[in-house]
TrEMBL record:
Top-level taxon in the UniProt lineage: Bacteria
Protein name: MaoC like domain-containing protein
Gene Ontology molecular function: (3R)-hydroxyacyl-[acyl-carrier-protein] dehydratase activity
Gene Ontology annotations of biological process type: fatty acid biosynthetic process
Pfam families found in the cross-reference section: MaoC_dehydratas
Gene3D superfamilies: Hotdog Thioesterase
Length: 114
């Protein structure tokens, strides 16, 4: 699944989470930290991965998760979320269009009963 991580989405996440660190919102602060543009919040990326997986798998619950961030994700980057199921686990990889792995992790899942 492809998704462009927009400055608007990062702004909305910053407001909702109360994490308004300049590195996420301000180009000058990001440049001072060595980045070409502001970077996305790690928790935003992890939450987005969970949301995207569940939207495609509505009969599943995520019971546990972990994610390791390999590289910062620059705002206004298109990323690919890849989900590979293995029993009750889902291997998650977040890759930029440049094929750089941004993050990888695992979701533990179970069937949802209505």
């Amino acid at each position: 699944m492809r998704k462009c991580i927009t400055a608007e989405a990062i702004q909305q996440y910053a407001e909702a989470s109360k994490d308004r660190a300049d590195i996420h919102l301000n180009a000058e602060a990001a440049a001072k930290a060595g980045f070409r543009r502001p970077i996305a919040h790690g928790m935003y990326i992890m939450g987005l991965a969970q949301s995207m997986y569940l939207s495609e798998n509505p009969m599943k619950w995520i019971t546990a998760y972990s994610m390791k961030f390999e590289k910062p994700l620059l705002v206004e980057t298109v990323v690919i979320f890849d989900f590979k199921e293995s029993n009750d686990n889902v291997l998650v990889t977040v890759t930029a269009e440049t094929e750089e792995v941004i993050a990888s992790g695992i979701f533990s899942t179970k069937e949802r009963f209505e």
